[in-house]
Amino acid sequence: MVSAISFGDTNSGFQAGIINSPVNTEFYYHIPLERLETPPNPSVVIPFSHDTDFVERGIILDQIYQKCAVLGSRTALVGLGGVGKSQLAIEYAYRTQDRSPETWVFWVHASNAARFEQSFRDIANCVKISGRQNPQANIFQLVHDWLRDDRKGEWVLILDNVDDAGFLVKVQSTSQDGQTNGIGNRNLRPLVAYLPQCPNGSILITTRSESVALELVEQRDIIAVEPMGKADALALFKNKLGRHEDSDNTAELAATLEFMPLAIVQAAAYISQREPRCSVRQYLQDFQKSDREKISLLDNEAGHLRRDKEAKNSIIITWHISFTHVRHIRPSAAGLLALMSLCDRQGIPESLVRSQVEVKTSEKRDSTSNELIDGFEDDVLMLRNYSFISISENQSTFEMHALVQLAMRTWMETNGKLEWWKQRYVKTLCTEFPTGDYENWPKCQELFPHAQSVYVWRMGKGVEAEKMSVLAMKARKRILGREHNDTLDSMAMVGLAYKLRGRWDAAEELFVQVIEMSKKKLGADHPNTLTSMANLAATYRNQGRWDAAEELEVQVMEMSKKKLGPDHPDTLSSMANLAFTWKGIGRENEAVRLMEECVQAQKRVLGLNHPHTISSCIALDTWKAEQEDVVLLAQSIEDG
Fold this sequence. Notes:
By secondary structure, the protein is α/β, with parallel strands linked by helices. The chain has helices at residues 60-68, 85-99, 113-127, 139-148, 166-169, 210-213, 230-241, 247-256, 261-274, 280-287, 291-298, 315-329, 331-340, 350-353, 376-385, 402-414, 418-432, 441-446, 453-458, 462-480, 485-500, 504-521, 527-542, 546-563, 569-584, 588-605, 611-639, and strands spanning 2-6, 12-16, 44-45, 74-78, 104-109, 155-160, 201-207, 222-224, 348-349, 364-365, 372-373, 389-391, 397-400. The strands form 4 sheets. Strands 3-5-6-7-4-8 form a 6-stranded parallel β-sheet, sandwiched between helices. It has a 3-stranded antiparallel β-sheet with strand order 9-13-12. Strand 12 (389-391) and strand 13 (397-400) form a beta hairpin. Helix 12 crosses helix 16, helix 21 runs parallel beside helix 23 (527-542) and helix 22 packs antiparallel against helix 23. The protein is elongated. This is DUF7779 domain-containing protein. GO terms for molecular function: ADP binding.
């Protein structure tokens, strides 16, 4: 039995009594027929106005035109956050409209799935696609089909900020309520499938990551966007300030800001908002005061009206977002960047950072050989993909932008990790940095050539060696105490620096102190004690105090032979020193014999090219030549 029932003017239905057959309870929405809409004319559908302050930036726009002119093409602009990728895309959009008014230009926010979907809905509404208002419609399919329809005309699709391609290339997972994660309709195809490659359109992508770009385009279709050149940076400053400023100060500030467009726009906005109490010169002076002042100025978010609402105008925050993303994907790469940010920004040696990052998530074992796979290269690749680092021409060192280093240190401090990484950095230097001896000179030149007083002393740089060694000595006395071994080493190093500069009395005083404390703490025949005795003897010899020098040098040589062995480098040095002293006091024959014995051992132990061997050989040859001259002179006198 079935009876009709009404609930008002717009609602009606049936009421069933007894039902003896299956019942279909599925309800159908009544969707009113859409009225036919007049298709709009082609236009630029982007959320940003045209930037009249835009600066050409060389040939980049020409490269974009050339690649995007190939219909069906996909092109990617790749570069560091804040380098101006989106601004280039905006300019390209408006110039495309000027050149080809019949071409559609669509802008898609592609930072995540939800914004991607909203942009597709905006496109559907703009071009008035039939069926778009149906809640069950697949908006991606509708837009895809519209774009593929060559009757709609030519188009350019700009995907902005594709910094994570995962949501595009992976199949969307469906939740229990039938909704896909981040997508408002049921759709199990990857979203990239709805980006058509057809003869009537091209796609331009902006991304910070080259690896992300390679998931969407070919390597040959990537355009690298670098910081501005000097002339372009000055032009941008001039345009944004709206007036002429002192060119020298502006040029210096542009260089200080690494010619980064976002940083330049930030600085210009900051200056303009605070004039006349702020100028380029004042901003530059404040910026150069300290890292904290730099961070304060770079954290300002003023000045940019043509950036995505979710993208920060602060270049510091922009990079912090990228650091967080890298850390989430590959923690070991973030650790490597942290360590690099504490080095000098240029010439960061691979040997210094390769094995010192303690984050081990990148280490895996080959399933067939069970050998440990080196994750360092993958870490480097990720950092290069994000333009955080670059490789120098010699392929063994890295470089970073100064502002990237500053931003990374700020990020570490914000996340409570700066002090930990500073300690890691110091331990790394202690582990990797060699002594300043000859054998280590190449590595010293590779690893911060001015960072160790022993090295600069060996190179004969007296003033620099004294300055560095005195600072080290004072610090060790304060931290370690006066009698600590490292403190004694520093005192001896200061004595050597004094000696190099001819400050004999100061050098002698320090060496005597070190010898006394070393004998008491280490013993009379300890190598460190013997070295200090040899240094004091050399000071005596340089002053012409031959007897005092000889007495000490004989003691050093005999104890070295007994303690270290006859072929030990320190023993050989003591032999050479005594030979020089004997030569100085006129014991020519004894000096030559001892030096001959020393040279033979040095050639065998140290090698022909070692400075000590070369020095001893030169001295020996000179002494022998002098003896021959004496003999010839005596014979000449006898012959009358």
